Amino acid sequence: MNVLTICRHLEIPLKLKAKNFYAMITKRILGADETQQVYEFKAADIQVKTIRIESNGKCKESMSFKQIRYEEIVDQEWEDSDFYMELTSKFFFIIFKHDHPDDPYVLERVIFWNMPEKDLEVVKKVWLDAQQKIAIGDYEHFIKSSHRQIAHVRPHANDSFDVMRTPQGTFEKKQSFWLNRNYIMEILQNNP
């Protein structure tokens, strides 16, 4: 079923340019409105994530997670961190795909997934690198997606005024951990 049909059926306003449009569709499919959490998934510690596949077969974007709380991460252990908690929960991926750039996306499939332990070890290195850089006040040299790790750090702010207090007492642009889009594609290829 394509997103236009889904929107019509669920009475969702067509806001194709909205950043959260596909997340909004996902929530409505699961029985919540756009401002609500899906209670059953939250209670079961399942993260719902929307993935879009382009007509060239590639994942449209990397997958974002909560913003890094600079003042907290410096005192955390990996196993107690927000990012670890997110990654060790179960994921429910809702995958939309389109065959031609002019066609609407189609709800292709859904999958449940857990991150393998070996991948968590790779991501731990990215997290430790970010923690160390934040501790010394370096907010410019985080691991990037081009480093070909499973994850990277990059801005996750509305604009340049969307900042967060740092351990140094300054304010820096909000950033988040992201799973690389190439890694997301591997997940999908390994879970047909």
Can you describe this structure?
By secondary structure, the protein is α+β, with helices and mostly antiparallel strands. Helix content is 32%, strand content 23%. The protein has helices at 3-10, 21-29, 39-43, 70-73, 82-87, 117-135, 181-190; strands spanning 46-53, 63-67, 90-97, 106-113, 151-155, 163-165, 171-173, 175-179. A three-stranded mixed β-sheet has the order 1-3-4. It has a three-stranded antiparallel β-sheet with strand order 2-8-5. A hairpin with a 5-residue loop joins strand 6 (163-165) and strand 7 (171-173). The protein is globular.
Q: In DSSP terms, counting alpha (H) and pi (I) runs of 4 or more, how many helices?
A: 7
Helix percent band: 25-40%
What's the CATH architecture name? Answer: 3-Layer(aba) Sandwich
- Succession of helices and strands: HHHEEHHEEHEEEEH
Average pLDDT over all residues? 91
Quickly give the structural class.
Answer: alpha+beta
Q: What would the keywords be for this entry?
A:
192 residues, alpha+beta, ECO RV Endonuclease, Chain A, three-stranded mixed sheet, three-stranded antiparallel sheet, 7 helices
Topology:
Layout: H1 3-10, H2 21-29, H3 39-43, E1 46-53, E2 63-67, H4 70-73, H5 82-87, E3 90-97, E4 106-113, H6 117-135, E5 151-155, E6 163-165, E7 171-173, E8 175-179, H7 181-190
Parallel strand pairs: 1-3
Antiparallel strand pairs: 2-8, 3-4, 5-8, 6-7
